[in-house]
Amino acid sequence: MCNSVKVAVVKCFDPLKDVEKALKLIDAEKTVIKDEKVLIKPNYIIAEGPKYVHVTDPKIIEALVVWLKNLGIEDITVAEGGLSLDTADRAFEITGLTKLADKYDIKLVNLNQDRFVTIKVPDAYVLKEVNIAKTILEADCIINVAKLKIHHIAGVTLCAKNLMGCIWPKGIMHTNIHEKLADLASIVKPHINIIDGTLGSERDEIYGDPVKMDLIIAGLDIVATDTIGCLVMGIDPRKAKFLQLMSKKALGIYDPSKIKVLGENLMEVTRNFRLAYGFEDWRLKEPLSNLLKQ
C-alpha cells in the first residue's frame, strides 16, 4: 500500500542539529511563511528543571527558535498553560526560557492567564464548546512540542493531549477524554507536531520514571505523529481511541501502514514503556513489522 504521510524519527544528541534534521525530513519549512505569527506550544504541565523528564527540554525550544529565525521568522511566541495559574511562569523561569526570550527577542505567554474565547465545536462527539486562549487563535502557525509520556487517564500524552494546555478550565476534559481530545483537535490544528523523546516518562505523566530514548519524532500530521509515538513506546495505537476518532474527523492518518517513517529504523528504537494501571492491554502484542506492512 502506498505510504501517504511522513513522520521523522531521528536520534537526538545535539538538538540544534538534530531538530533541524527531523524538520527537513518532513519538509516542515514549507509550512512556515515569513511575516506570520508563529507560536510554539511546549508541554510544561509542571515547572520542572533538569533533567526535564516530564516537560519539554528547553534545548528543543531553542533549536526551534533558531530554525525559525534562520527562515526569516521574527514574530515568535512560546505559550503554555500548565496545571495552575502560575505554572507556566514558573516553568519559563526554571527552564531558562525567560533568558532565552531575551536572547532571541521572542515572547512568552502564560495561556492560563490569557483572554479566552468560547468556540463552538462543529459535529462534536462530546465537547460542544470550549474556551480557547486568544493567543492560540491569533497564531498563524502553531508548532506543537509534546513529550513522550504515559498518561494515567488518556493512556498516553503526546501531541493531541498537549493541546489541553490551550484551554480553560482543563478539568472538563477528564471524562470522555478520547472523544474530547478529538473534538479539541478539530479546533486547534497545529501545523508542525514534535515529540520530545530525548527522555520519556513511563507509568505516569508527572510521577513517572525516566526512559532514555534520545529521539525526536516530527510530523505535519498530528494523528500520524502520535501513532508513531505510541509505537515507539511499545503501544498498539489501535487501542488509543482518540486516534481513531481523530482519523474519523479527517484530522490525520493512524494506520501505520500508510505512514512513511524517515530517519531511524522504527524497529530498532522502540522500547516497552511501563504502562499506567488499567492500560495493560494497550501493549503491542504482534510484531511491529506486521503492523507496518498491513
Outline the structure in words.
By secondary structure, the chain is an alpha/beta fold. It has a single domain, classed as 3-Layer(aba) Sandwich (Rossmann fold), CATH 3.40.50. The chain is 30% helix and 24% strand. The protein has eleven helices and eleven strands. Strands 1, 2, 3, 4, 7, 8, 9, 10 and 11 form a nine-stranded mixed β-sheet that branches. A two-stranded antiparallel sheet has the order 5-6. A hairpin with a 3-residue loop joins β7 and β8.
Strand content: 15-25%
The secondary-structure element order is: EHEHEHHEEEHEEHHEEHHEHH
CATH topology: Rossmann fold
- Which word captures the global form? globular
Nearest-integer average pLDDT:
96
Q: Report the biggest beta sheet as strand number plus sense, adding barrel if it closes.
A: 9 strands, mixed
Query: How many strands?
Result: 11
Rg over CA atoms, rounded to whole Å, is 17 Å
Query: How many helical elements?
Result: 11
Overall CATH class: Alpha Beta
Class computed from helices, strands and strand pairing: alpha/beta
